[in-house]
Amino acid sequence: MEFWKLFVVALMPIVKVLLITLLGIFLALDRFHILSNEISRKNLNTIVFFVFSPALVCGSLAETITSKSLLMLWFMPLNVLLTFIIGVVLGLLLVKMIRVPRHLHGLVLGCCAAGNLGNLPLIIVPAVCKQKGNPFGDADICHKNALGYASLSMAIGSIYIWTIVYNIVRVYSSQISNEVKVDDSMITPNSTLEIDQENISKDRSHTNYVKQLEIECTTSNERVKVPKNEKIKKLLKVLVEKINLKALFAPATIGAIVGLIIGIVPIFRKLLIVNNAPLAVIQDSIVMVGDAGIPAMTLLVGANLIKGLKGLGKQFPIIVGIIVVRFIALPGIGIGIVKGAIHFGLIHPDPLYQFLLLLQFALPPAVSMSTITQLFGVSEGECSVIMLATYSCAAFSLTLWSTFFMWLVL
User: Fold this and answer.
1) Would you place residue 213 in the very low, low, confident or very high pLDDT band (cuts 50, 70, 90)?
2) Phi, psi (rounded to 5 degrees) for 226
3) 242 within a domain of the structure (yes/no)
């Protein structure tokens, strides 16, 4: 296809996203009192998080993913993991180059590592299929496959965000809190001994947990070790304490697991999915609820971005650095990775699937970064500013990269 026609096909979904995002910003203005306060945004976000997202992911995966197609899509988890690893490496280089303040290290690394693998692919890729003259074939089949691919991308991204990025921000936020405690102890010398003892006990509980896996006692100059079963149990207990399982198994992740089970297990598929299935009404209801998730997600993105209008110029070097990482460096590296995988036959020859793999490298930071910073109470204002700037820039970069990616895979 001509490059200009591809540009128009790529532009229309971005325009739709922008229009709905602007409506979200409009509704978040104080004069309208619809999404202007935290309570209303929180309530809508709760509905999206617990109802719309899992329904959308579950319904899409159940319809499109089978045991055969799942084997064909094995490269996607690896591809998403590479976006996180490369993003962290580039983020570390950015932190060193522009000397990012220490309290922003976790935020910068998280924004460089985690792309919006849920909302935007779910909006953009199916919308491309609906465009007249889309390059991916029949509109209905393309739309169905696009929802399945994007839903799987959302589920994988959610797992990586809450295992990798969550712990990155947690580590840096704990370092900041420890520094604050040390500063406070210097101001109040009378309580120095108590604070030092408290810090020593905390350090021991965190850094010596591996040593607790092996209990040593000396009896008649003999060293007695704990059985391997006890070591494994204690190690699992430590991992459960260190990893936020509640966040890891978010509703969208649970919805993805349920959707995969329905799609893969033949009995469930016959009951819910195939033509004239006896329980098809349940699947139809799930899909209907999930369809409300895409506009609700986009409205929330706009409503949350309005918080970043203040202080936009204060973080200019950091914003430029994150934009370069996410919209220039990562997509360029992604092209090399995906084209290399295609050359060695690691990816099945579906242009729509290849397009989504490339798109995963060119997305703005994940919306979940706002949730994570709020959770730890660090860099919330700076996160809003970065989100506003990067998503404004994404309107242009995503159009150009989407056009180029479509031209590349066809």
Assistant:
1) very low
2) -70, 145
3) no
Instruction: Share the mean pLDDT of the chain.
Output: 80
Q: Which of 391, 368, 397 is nearest to 305 (CA)?
A: 391
What is the residue-wise DSSP string for 371-384? HHHHHHTSSHHHHH
Task: Give me the number of domains the chain comprises.
Answer: 1
Token pair 């203005």 is found at 29
Q: 98-112, 188-202, 268-282, 291-305: which range is least confident on average?
A: 188-202
Residue 85 belongs to domain spanning: 3-186+247-409
Distance CA 223, CA 246 (A): 39
Alpha-carbon distance of 28 to 138, in angstroms, equals 38
Question: Which CATH number fits the domain that encloses residue 178?
Answer: 1.20.1530.20
Closest to 293 (Cα-Cα) out of 146, 123, 115, 41: 123
CA distances 118 to 18, 205, 246, 298, 320, Å, are 17, 37, 19, 11, 24
Whether residue 13 is contained in a domain is answered as yes
**Among 2, 319, 330, residue whose Cα is nearest residue 135:** 2
Residue 77 resides in a domain? yes
Residue 215 lies in a domain: no
The reported pTM is 0.76
Query: How many Å apart are CA 155 and CA 260, to the nearest integer?
Result: 11
Strands of 164-318, DSSP E: 217-219, 222-224
Q: Which two tokens stand for residue 315?
A: 């973080």
Q: What is the DSSP letter of 134?
A: -
Cβ count within 10 A of residue 117: 27
